[in-house]
Amino acid sequence: MTFLFYIAAAVAVVATVLVITRSNLVHALLYLVVSLFAVAVVFYTLGAPFVAALEVIVYAGAIMMLFVFAVMLLNVSADSPLRVPRRAWIGPLLLIAVLFAELVYGIGLSNHALPAREVGPKQVSEALFGPYVLGVELASMLLLAALIGARHVASQPESPGREDVPGSGEQTGGQAGVDAGGQAGVGGEA
Amino acid sequence: MAAVSLNHGLMLAVTLFVIGFVGLLTRRNLIVVLACIEIMLNAAGLAFVVAGARWGRADGQVMFLFVLAMAAAEVAVGLALAIRFRQSLGRLDVDDADGMKG
Known about the structure:
By secondary structure, chain A is mostly helical. In chain A, 72% of the residues lie in helices and 0% in strands.
C-alpha cells in the first residue's frame, strides 16, 4: 500500500499544479477533480476508507458540480483568457518557497511510522454521534445558513422603482424572463 | 494498512496547501480563486486525517467531515457571490472589485 500512497501523492501534486496554471477554466476544474480523486486514494492508503468515499462523493461530486454549474451559468468563456503575466508569479513563489522550506524542515524533524490500522466507518460514526454530536448540529446550522445566504445573495435584486427609470425596460424584461425560466425549471423538477 | 511515515503525509498536505496558496495569490479569476481555497481546505483536511491515522483514532476523520461541511458552505456562498459579481461588474476579475479603494 505504501507505493500507492506515493503514486497518488505525485498525481495529486501534479494535478494541483496544473489547476493553478491552466488558462482554460474548465480544464483547471477538471484537473481539480483529478487532484481530489488522488487525495481520495491517499485517504484510502492511510486507512481511512470512509473519508475517501466522502471525498469522492462530496468534494469531487457535489462541490465540483457546483463549480461546473457556476461556470455554465456565468458563460465564463466569453471573458478574456485567464492568463497571468509571468512576472506576477515571481513574488508569491519566492515568499511561498521560504514558507514551504520552513514547514518541510519543521515536519522533517519528527519521523513516526503510521500504524497499519484502518479506522473504519463504524468508529468514525461512533465518534461523530458520541462526543462530537454538538459539532454535527453546528455543521447542520452552518449548512442551512449557507443555503439561505446563497439563495439571498444570488437572487435577482428586488427593484420596485426600476420600471420608472427610462431606458432600463429591456433589462428588467430580460431579468423577469430569466426569473420565470428559473422558477419553471424548479417547478418542473419538483 | 500502510507503512507511510507521518511526515510524508504531512508533507503532502503542506505541498498541496502551498500550491493552493500560490494560486490564490497569483490568479485573478474569481472561480479559480475559489478553487484554490478548496485546494487549501482539502489540504488542511488531509493533515487532520494523517494526524488521526498517526494515533489510530477517528477524531481526525471527524474533523475532516467538519472541514468538508465548511467547504461546502463556503463554496455555495462564494459561487453565489461570483454570480452577483458577474452581474454587477460584467467580468470575473477580482481586480475589478476595487469600489472600496482597498
